[in-house]
């Protein structure tokens, strides 16, 4: 399963369109982790799984549990789980939802880590990055048994930001 993950585009349809054009055609799913600041029926979000961020209207769901090619993906913005301070509440929710991959945003800081066999990915921000210069999105390549690769890309150029990428080998 190969999934494009983006977040925090804050009303910019141009950056979303640019990222979708940059992504390879072998993407199995597209996720927006909130703060799109667009309407639920906006053409830029067509075929994109989108959750509500703290800057979005109430038309989007707070969370989604999606299965893509047998991988259980939990999607939330992160503001309800205090992700700017700790990942503990988010990890509890991921465990409750039996997620294999957790996608979240809110902090505008790209992050990828593994805890208890679950991979967590924050793609950073498409518009207002923090703690680094690049506006970023992520692509996760994950199969049920093999390694999980999280690659980050510059949203403006499409070039890989190799310093942010990570590979995980899951035990379960």
TrEMBL record:
It is an enzyme of class 3 (hydrolase). Residues 1-143 form the Calcineurin-like phosphoesterase domain. One of its GO terms (molecular function) is hydrolase activity. It comes from the Bacteria. Keywords: Metal-binding. InterPro entries: Calcineurin-like_PHP_lpxH, Metallo-depent_PP-like, MPP_YfcE, Phosphodiesterase_MJ0936/Vps29. Its EC number is 3.1.4.-. Its cofactor is a divalent metal cation. NCBIfam families: yfcE. Belongs to the metallophosphoesterase superfamily. YfcE family. PANTHER family: VACUOLAR SORTING PROTEIN VPS29. This is Phosphoesterase.
């Amino acid at each position: 399963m190969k999934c494009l993950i983006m977040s925090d585009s804050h009303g910019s349809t141009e950056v979303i369109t640019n990222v979708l054009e940059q992504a390879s055609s072998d993407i199995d799913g597209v996720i927006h982790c909130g703060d799109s600041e667009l309407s639920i029926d906006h053409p830029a979000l067509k075929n994109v799984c989108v959750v509500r961020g703290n800057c979005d209207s109430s038309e989007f769901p707070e969370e989604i549990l999606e299965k893509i090619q047998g991988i259980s993906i939990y999607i939330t913005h992160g503001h309800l789980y205090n992700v700017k301070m700790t990942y503990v509440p988010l990890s509890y929710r991921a465990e409750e939802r039996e997620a294999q991959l957790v996608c979240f945003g809110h902090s505008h800081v790209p992050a990828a880590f593994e805890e208890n066999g679950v991979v967590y990915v924050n793609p950073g921000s498409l518009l207002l990055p923090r703690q680094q210069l690049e506006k970023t999105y992520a692509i996760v390549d994950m199969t049920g048994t093999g390694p999980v690769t999280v690659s980050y890309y510059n949203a403006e150029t499409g070039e890989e930001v190799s310093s942010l990428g990570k590979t995980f080998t899951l035990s379960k």
